[in-house]
Amino acid sequence: MASSLLLSFLLYSLILQSVGVVAQTNSTIAIGDSFTAETSNSTWLLSPSGDFAFGFLPIQDTDLFLLSIWYAKIPEKTVVWYANREIPAPKGSKVELNADDGLVLTSPNGVGLWNTTEELSAKVSHGVFNDTGNFVLEGGGWETFKYPSDTLLPSQFLQKGGSLSSRLKESNFSKGRFELVLQNDGNLVIHSINLPSGSANENYYESGTVESNTSSAGTQLVFDRSGYLYVLGENNEKYNVSEQESKVSTTLYYLRATLNFDGVFAVYKHPKNSIDGEGWTTVWSKPDNICTYIVSAGSGVCGYNSLCTLEVDKRPKCQCPKRYSLVDPEDPFGSCKPDFIQGCAEDEPSKNRNDLYEFETMTDIDWPYSDFVLQKPFNEKQCKESCMEDCMCYVAIFRYGDSCWKKRLPLSNGRVDATLNDAKAFLKVRKDNTSLVPLNPTIVNKTNNRETLVLAGSVLLGSSAVLNAVLIVAICISTSLIFKYKKKLRRVSKSDASFEIESHLRCFTYAELEEATNGFDKELGRGAFGIVYEGVVNNNTASKARVAVKKLNSFMLDQAHKEFRNELNAIGLTHHKNLVRLLGFCESGSERLLVYEYMSNSTLASFLFNEEKQKPNWKLRLELAIGIARGLVYLHEECITRIIHCDIKPQNILLDDYFNARISDFGLAKLLNMNQSKTNTGIRGIKGYVALEWFKNMPITAKVDVYSYGVVLLEIISCRKCVEEMDEEDEDKAILTDWAYDCYNDGALDALVEGDNEALEDKENLEKLVMIALWCVQEDPCLRPTMRNVVHMLEGTVEVQVPPYPSPISIQYSLN
User: Fold this and answer.
1) What is residue 44's DSSP assignment?
2) Per-residue pLDDT for 798 more than 60?
3) Rg for the chain (alpha carbons), in Å?
């Protein structure tokens, strides 16, 4: 019996010891220690008390990781510091401690993503993770408390010039739209910034701790161990930021002071022993009402055309006005768009505007920075009539009994404000609900999983050339929305199987387009799927408009039909100044035609590779590069159906009257649902612009467009094609991506833009653009930036790191 008890005790002891080994994590690291980002193991270090963890935290719904510090004992893992906010680490990335560079974060193939090299004052001896949540590189003078992200912890402070930057969204750790700074004059301020430029708007909070207002200027922002925030003056006086009464017991609660993504700076507490699942609650926050803070630029706390309402916890809530909806349904703080067509070009001149529009009346709201005219003295009736007859007026605000402010889109800084108790807002909306609705019924039906049930009639396009007349009245009954779809249908013959849809797309007959193009006489260009002709159409007014008519190859009927539907569904639902606008279509028997707005300045290819060998204006080329990037951001992230273009090249970038870049040819676009990020498909595009994953049977993501953009960017920089025949002595210049990296690596970018004096005088921008392009053409898609990050780098709000050597483009030829 005694031996059995002894054996049980020994086994129990061994189990406890093994559990202890698993649970135990060091709080110090030595030179040479490293840690790898893996899904199953994210913690590298624990503070001695186990309150804080340091390591890789998986980013939601991605295969990427954030090197960060978080509260280890709280289930939601609240992040309080992070390193690589702009360049998340792919799975398999490694962080290592070395004496000369401190912490070094590298991707799986060894490319540097982030390091502490520049902030070190001496060699590092080892790393220590403290119970305060501060990770310190001993000997090197670097610690996370000196370089905060969006949060301060008790016992942490900011020196003059120190700042906090908010996140872009709650779950997006990129640099956001708000900033807290202890300025060099000692004043603590909070303001919004305009992305991607980074320019600051006026302050909506100031501590006033400058020498002219106080006995001494501020030297530090201190967050003491009891949760009290104050600015410490030069004479050691304390100037309240939070109230003394807001002190909290750090024995019972965890504390943090965070600049939230919505611009509210708040102190939060969380019980250390939460019995009822109590989470973070607000102790103190500034400003008192962020919805009404004064700002002279930007959209405000919420996106454009949105309204901000203050919640009980002083956090803002954004919502779209009636008959408006979010541009990005996944971003409730984003911009709103009208769910109807309105504008000077869209209004029917033959109709009385009172027959087209009506007003939604709201109270206690305003968009104070969207006025374009003040009319005074006006009564309420005159105010409404003036807005009704003005095609540029979307909203009229009537206030003070005699003042009428007319407003145009975009509406900025929208807020619900009870102090506007005598104000009425008249929101002009379309009566017949003519909307930007999809042509494809499957897209409409995807909304049926919401509370709204839509029963819609669709015109079904079969393989037969004959369409029978279809008449369906679309009825939708909902507690919140009523959609009415009107369709004019007509009986058609075998030779003209067309139909009309009362929407923003116009349905043409084949005869109309044949006449408009003078029998398809003047050719503008041709591609694999068809030929583009110049034409002139009657736009239902006394005037005519030049158009480009794309006639798809009838002998490729199956592919052409798919191409036709792709373009309708893709372009028909998009609207962006850097995309070519689809005006209408024709489907008649085996004929498929698309009608686009006419682009007077041809293609980017003809602009860059002109016969005179003259290099166009450098600044204009930079604007074109940014315009293309913005268009791709819209396709990848912002339009209703996410789109991978799959064929970005200079021939598919058109230039309008003002030399704005306009992306065209969506026939090869791969449409993605909102919850998709990758797909599998056959090789598309042409050699030189095609990412290597096409050849490796890998899933295709939006990063294929990033690769193609990188190649096009190098062509914009150098004004030469990506692949050119060269003499034997210049053979190393034949592949542009290879040669560009050689020029960059050798410090010889002059050769890349030889003879371009404007580019040579702007060497800082030139080097930055080449670096961005080289990041875009990396073989590993995970190393390529998103197009949004590309825009940020182009605008200068994100620093461009040194790019690694990209895989030679010649691999494409050996693999194909």
Assistant:
1) E
2) yes
3) 30
Is 619 assigned a ligand-binding role in the annotation? no
DSSP 38: B
What is d(CA 341, CA 510) in angstroms, rounded to the nearest whole number?
A: 26
Please check the confidence at residue 10 and state whether its pLDDT lies above 70: no
- At 652 the three-state DSSP class reads helix
Mean pLDDT of 336-363: 80
Over residues 625-639, mean pLDDT? 89
Please, which contacts does 392-395 make with residues 24 or more away whose CB atoms are closer than 8 Å?
392/344, 393/428, 394/338, 394/342, 394/427, 394/428, 395/367, 395/370, 395/425, 395/426, 395/427, 395/428
pLDDT in tens, 414-451: 998 888 878 899 999 988 754 443 333 333 333 333 33
Which residues does the annotation mark as catalytic? 647
Q: Which residues contact 747 (CB under 8 A, 6 or more apart)?
A: none
Residues 6+ apart with CB under 8 A from 48: 27, 130, 131
Q: Which of 764, 427, 785 is nearest to 618 (CA)?
A: 764
- Is pLDDT at 648 greater than 80 in this prediction? yes
Check whether the bond before 196 is cis (ω within 30° of 0).
yes
- The residue among 576, 636, 580 whose CA lies nearest residue 337 is 576
Helices (H), 482-546: 510-516
Residues whose CB falls within 8 Å of the CB of residue 131, separated by 6 or more in sequence, listed in order: 47, 48, 49, 51, 52
Are 93 and 105 in contact by the 8 Å Cβ rule? The answer is yes
Please state, in angstroms and rounded to a whole number, the distance separating the CA atoms of residues 143 and 757.
45
Q: Coil, strand, or helix at residue 399?
A: strand
Q: From the centroid of its chain, how far is CA 92?
A: 26
Instruction: Count Cβ atoms below 10 Å from residue 148 Cβ, excluding itself.
Output: 22
Which token pair is 239?
Answer: 């100037």
pTM for this entry: 0.55
* Burial class, 359, CB count within 10 angstroms (exposed 0-12 / middle 13-18 / buried 19+): middle
Instruction: Note the pLDDT tens digit of each residue in 202-238.
Output: 889 999 998 777 778 899 999 988 888 999 998 888 8
What is the set of domains in the chain, with CATH numbers? 24-147 (2.90.10.10), 307-430 (3.50.4.10), 441-597 (3.30.200.20), 604-815 (1.10.510.10)
- For the chain, the residue count is 816
Of residues 544, 541, 532, 512, the one with CA closest to residue 599: 532
Bridge partners (DSSP) listed for residue 188:
182
- Report the Cα–Cα distance between both ends of the chain, in Å, rounded: 76
Q: Give the DSSP H or E segment for 812.
A: helix 811-815
**Do the Cβ atoms of 654 and 666 come closer than 8 Å?**
no
Q: How far apart are CA 254 and CA 563, in angstroms?
A: 57
